[in-house]
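Worked example
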Amino acid sequence: MKRFLHKLSGALLLLCLTAGLFTLTSYANPVILYAGTWGTCPWEIDANGKLTVHPGTGVNTYGKSPWADYASQIKSVVFAKEGDAVVVAPPACSHLFNGFGNAASFDFPGWNTAAAESMYGMFHNCSSVTALDLSGWNTAAVIAMYDMFNGCSSLTTLTLEGWNTANVDHMNGMFKNCSSLTSLSFGSAWNTISVTHMKEMFSGCSSLTSLDLSGWNTTNV
């Protein structure tokens, strides 16, 4: 009897599908190619090249990206917020995304940079990204920003509103070779009083048509 009912239900389902009464939709997620942890932050890279970093606390990078071995395969980056939990930056975030030359988008809904002290080379040679909105990042503790966007040759829009740079002393090559950047504005919290190095800061910015540096204090440069 059970076997008969099983066959009958299967036949009815097939009949309904054939008649168009039901449709089956696949919600399968992309295959995960690589996974691991950065400090206490779980992360994965899927078959679409999306790197997702989940809440936790990262560990110091000391000049090498945790995803350096997969850099050429990464096409997008998301630092996820899950409830109230976010990804907490370590003091050393240097070269975090260095060499992500195929990554066209970076999204940071869950990213707390309050503890970050070094961001040098963070987006170095991210040559495919066209827009970066980093407004609201807490940069009050950051000391080093040199080469931060060096080689972002496709970048046309860069938003740094709200950045507090009062403690930054090194900005060499910060926007070097951003050859597609047409304009760049700095928020009211931008402060250069502590900066001692600005060499080649805008070198290679061949598309830049306007640049307002009024109010910059370069006494210590």
About this structure: The CA atoms of residues 2 and 8 lie 10 Å apart. The radius of gyration is 23 Å. The first helix runs from residue 2 to 19. DSSP finds one helix and twelve strands in the chain.
